[in-house]
Amino acid sequence: MSSKPRRIFVLDASAFMYGYPSVVVEGEHFTPLAVLEELKSLQARAYADAVLSSKHVEVLPPPRECLEEVSKKAEQLGSLQVLSRADLEVLALALYLKKKESAEVTVVSDDYDVQNVAAALGLRFQPLRTSGIKAVFKWIYYCPSCGKIYRQPQPSLRCEICGSFLKRRPRKRG
Fold first, then answer.
1. In which residue ranges of the chain is CATH 2.20.28 found?
2. What class has domain 7-126?
3. pTM of the predicted model as reported, rounded to 2 decimal places
4. Angle at 116 between CA 121 and CA 90, to 5 degrees
């Protein structure tokens, strides 16, 4: 007799903003506290309060070592500067649960950068209102004024030559 593998979902802010149905989706649902602190709308906060009080979503902090691993991967992809603390914690929590529980873990997020890092870490992701990414990509940063290319963004996100704000685009393969 084969038993079904545990299904674990880690929710980011979009799950609360769009009313992700954790009550009817079979599996365990988690989120880090940073996600709840990031919610701005009254509707999202009310939904979060409802699912938390009904025990359909559990708040769990990610371990520091998983946060460091996620940050390193995000930096390699060129996404670290655009991910919020909550985004990093969602990814770190999913990575931790995947390792600890040896379970299928899915990150529920509409954020393309979160999806990109999740895929690079070997995590599943489920978008809610977007089509989701089709492939993992690395970013390069460039100055739209003088054209200087950066493999990693400057800490200030400004060009070291002319001072303009950097933009980013996917790195071409090859």
1. 137-174
2. alpha beta
3. 0.83
4. 65
Among 123, 127, 153, smallest CA distance to 138 is for 153
CATH architecture designation of domain 137-174:
Single Sheet (2.20)
- Beta-sheet strand order (sheet of 7-11): 58-59, 28-31, 7-11, 104-108, 124-126
**Is 90 exceeded by the pLDDT of residue 1?**
no
The contacts of residue 131 (CB under 8 Å, 6+ apart) are none
* Dist. CA 87–CA 134, nearest whole Å: 20
CATH 3.40.50.1010 range(s) for the chain read: 7-126
Q: Enter the tokens of residue 36.
A: 């709840």
Residue 38 and residue 109 in contact, taking contact as beta carbons nearer than 8 Å: no
Name the band, by pLDDT with cuts 50, 70 and 90, for residue 135: confident
